[in-house]
Amino acid sequence: MKVDLILRNGWVFQTIRQRFEKMDIAVAGEKFYDISPVLPYEAECEVDCEGKYILPGLIDIHMHIESSMTYPREFSRTVLPFGVTTVVADAHEMANVFGMKGIKSFMDQETELDIFYGIPSSVPSTSPTLETSGGMIGEAEVKELLKDPRILCLGEVMNYKDLISPDKTLIQRIIDCCEENTRPVRLEGHCPALTGAALSAFIRAGVDADHTQQTAESVVEKSDKGMFLELQAKSLTREVIEAVEAHSLYENVALVTDDTMPDHLADGQLNRIVRLAVKEGMPVEKAVYCSTYTPARRMQLYDRGMIAPGKIADLAVYDNLEEFSPVAVYKSGKRYRPEDHLYIEDEAGSLFPEEFRKTLFCREAREEDFTIVCEEKKSGRTHWQGKALVHVMEVQTFGTRMVHKKRWVPVKDGVLCWQEEGLCLAVVYERYGKTGSLSFGLIDKAFSRRGAVATTWSHDSHNLLVIGNSPEDMAMAQREVLYMQGGYGVASQGKITAKAPLPIGGIVSDQPISRLAEELKEVRREIETLGYVNSNVIMSISTIGLLVSPELKLSDKGLVDVMSQEILPLVEETADQQA
Amino acid sequence: MKVDLILRNGWVFQTIRQRFEKMDIAVAGEKFYDISPVLPYEAECEVDCEGKYILPGLIDIHMHIESSMTYPREFSRTVLPFGVTTVVADAHEMANVFGMKGIKSFMDQETELDIFYGIPSSVPSTSPTLETSGGMIGEAEVKELLKDPRILCLGEVMNYKDLISPDKTLIQRIIDCCEENTRPVRLEGHCPALTGAALSAFIRAGVDADHTQQTAESVVEKSDKGMFLELQAKSLTREVIEAVEAHSLYENVALVTDDTMPDHLADGQLNRIVRLAVKEGMPVEKAVYCSTYTPARRMQLYDRGMIAPGKIADLAVYDNLEEFSPVAVYKSGKRYRPEDHLYIEDEAGSLFPEEFRKTLFCREAREEDFTIVCEEKKSGRTHWQGKALVHVMEVQTFGTRMVHKKRWVPVKDGVLCWQEEGLCLAVVYERYGKTGSLSFGLIDKAFSRRGAVATTWSHDSHNLLVIGNSPEDMAMAQREVLYMQGGYGVASQGKITAKAPLPIGGIVSDQPISRLAEELKEVRREIETLGYVNSNVIMSISTIGLLVSPELKLSDKGLVDVMSQEILPLVEETADQQA
């Protein structure tokens, strides 16, 4: 027997035993042919792997390609060299902007990377009464998507209230579609901080995985209750890893990326999470196991996830197990050489319909948009003097939470003097041309310097958000983003200081990831220069409109109390000068 | 919230952590509602489980109901009290006798026990040129069965030669049907002693589980190569369990029964295997895990296998973890009380069509059937004197192997004097009325006393086999089985000494299992009284016709060399008196 390829003498990861053994690996066609300490076959090509480590291709089962602001073909070129060979993508953002057409524009792209898909379960993230999105995913769309064998799961179900409602809500009907499907799909959840009876109710509804931030307690409770754990960077604390180790939860754990920003992609994708897990104390064998075998099993991808006869020959060769940067990657039995897969100029033009580049249907900002006129509550007087008790979103230094505060702000001549209080104003321009409305919110602990940021990369509805403390800069940033037909714009003191165009639906770049990364780094730096403090300033600003992230958020319909899912007025109470 | 049932304060198996914790369990309807150290709900019924152990219902994913010579309803009543709540049955014997009609007669029976099914993959076990069976399972039958959602796997693929043949053999086409099915099913294998490149080839063909006898080496090699291990009693040696423990292979292991004889059922079913595993050194938590969670996962039965919210409420309560005899069993949330589910007289009459009771279409034996006339090879002379070199099956004291020996036997007046040599004669009567043929073999180390055994419970084709050393007893035993329309009959010195009727297809009893067990115990004892020495004399005799079990076997077509799958003549060579 002559095989196509033999890798000799590498330290090969033995999945079930979770250890490295010196082995020969034979590949024929797209699959592993055999594995043994010494293989007798002849081969077209022999590679000496003495002293190298050989791992199965990494499998990322919870991630969003749009978080990298790019499209599948460019994403594929970017992550394959990291040894990532399979992902399960939830094209949630494309669905929010374009609906089914957006999802299909991703699924139609041919890639070297194996990309499977989850069905976006919450598009819009809440309901049309709370936010205006471009697309919607209902039962009909779910049923259509389920026909595609690349659909492996329903993506992050998050609406707890609707999920456990005694009424047959949309999410319950969507779950029924998935459960009634001939080919079973997994039901993936998003349930941060859910515990006790509420967690049990969530799981009873059929959703049995969670990728949100975990604690040492939550990993035990969720495992006990039959919930699979997808650990992303923020869950990979020493405490969580110690709990996973102490209770031997590994078979119930997969490592995932969820979101990788374009300017972080240079540092790796799932391999970066593996590296982090090991750095934080996870034994390397367990980290490999949880990024290859357990994710494959969770998604019923029995044809991959280990180096064994008959499995798809996805693997990567590493010099060492500290950096997790492979020296060679094989996808479906073929060496993946980045130089054979270069970015093609204007490639996106052929991958997306022309109309995907003209998707901003709101008007240009005017400086007067940022003047908040406010009546005196009891009398209905305008042009009054006094103060107003307003709801304020307070930026945190870590994560996407905006703490809900209230604050008295002076009112002069009927105008809210938010600038005097060191606050920033946030304005959402409904961008789909459905209502044309503007909504307003106030933010504390945002900028210490004068400036503004505008973006359409604004979860989950991706309306045009602008925040700032200077009407001139705010208008300028807004107009810049409008001109680019989407992206990020930063303005300070009358000048655009940084920008990153995302012309495809206002959320995806048509440029190579390296150029986008440079642009976004600049945007990030300029936002930080304005004094915005957060572990990820891009994500923090982009989730000001995310109505499923606590506590107070702003959609095109107004301020939303996330817990109660109710719209709040900007001004709760007023008091005239005497008060 | 008011639930239906709460079990309080038991030591409840926590599956992922693989340990017992003191917990309350709430059940609503057919499912677990919640689990926690203290549950706040009110309940219709509360049960104090202080000091008791609570385990998920046991799940047996490789077994044959026909091995217990009974039918699904009686089997269900028998095993539920043992805490077995789900099985995956391969109705291989019913298929060999009746084809699809046989499988459906089992699947149509309503049972309290959840019975899923595997598709019999090898019916007949070899090919119609080597044996005559009643039914056949081809592509059309496989496709039809795949439509039923209770079909979870293709059962024990065993024909290695056909499986790896470059031609598109039947088994390869059957596997294609399974792999192309919208709802994926598991491909289960039967590959005793396969190793190295041959094992890899078997796995490459897609078959990735094995339930045959394992060794300390095979469990490691098979796990490394991605093969799931189903360990039955004969694999649960100290050496195998030590290897499983040393390499932490548990997540890749399920405990299974395969075959449980009716007279062994009193001692338990899968609970007996769990008990044995623990006795042989497997930690009790691992044994429970491997008989609940791992089998459920292997068969993609995600709705069961652990005590967790939303799963089917199957559990059993135990006083201790030595005997594995539950004191209470709950199936789908309801207490299973054996007294509510008693055997119904003549029940089988309504469960099977009338023609299933008239299935023996061979003639009565005559004493002259057992006179073996043999020509002198070179000359073709009859009525000659000399000796003949014959192929002989040698009984082993353990297992189903018949060692292939050759032996010179005297020939007098052209008749083979097998009795003089202390041999037994085996005769197979083709029973389906297709050929009406008889075939002959010789057995060494069978009986030391005079007597005969006849049976239609004769794997896999279930033709009528008679073995013995006395033509009178042989004819008597054969006629007794014919009169019963199937079963076991033992005769000695002119008298029937024991019998067990199996009137449904000659393989299944219509009686309560307790009565059948008594009858079969008597048969077993009488066979042992004849001097037959084997760890399971019933199984040893019943596999004389099993052409996939080594080394020399006898079908209705003649002696079969199992390794080469070729038919051998009874007499290989002759020598006249001078030689």
Overall description:
Two copies of one chain form a homodimer. Chain A is 24% helix and 28% strand. Chain A has 16 helices and 29 strands. In chain A, helix 4 packs parallel to helix 6 and helix 8 runs parallel beside helix 9. The first copy, chain A, is elongated and about 95 Å long. The termini of chain A are far apart. Chains A and B meet through strand 3, helix 7 and helix 8 of A and strand 3, helix 7 and helix 8 of B.
Care to give the gist of this entry?
The first copy, chain A, is an alpha/beta fold and 579 residues long.
Describe the SSE topology.
Two copies of one chain form a homodimer.
Chain A: E1 2-14, E2 19-28, E3 31-36, E4 42-48, E5 53-56, E6 58-63, H1 72-79, E7 84-90, H2 92-98, H3 100-107, E8 114-120, H4 139-146, E9 151-157, H5 160-164, H6 170-180, E10 186-189, H7 196-204, E11 209-210, H8 216-224, E12 228-231, H9 238-246, E13 253-255, H10 270-279, H11 284-289, H12 293-298, E14 315-318, E15 328-331, E16 334-335, H13 347-351, E17 386-395, E18 402-412, E19 415-416, E20 424-429, E21 438-444, E22 452-455, E23 464-468, H14 471-484, E24 487-492, E25 495-501, H15 513-529, H16 537-542, E26 552-555, E27 558-561, E28 566-568, E29 571-576
Parallel strand pairs in A: 1-4, 1-5, 6-7, 7-8, 8-9, 9-10, 11-12, 12-13, 17-21
Antiparallel strand pairs in A: 1-2, 2-3, 5-14, 14-15, 15-16, 17-18, 17-29, 18-19, 20-21, 20-23, 22-23, 22-24, 24-25, 26-27, 27-28
Helix pairs in contact in A: 2-3, 4-6, 8-9
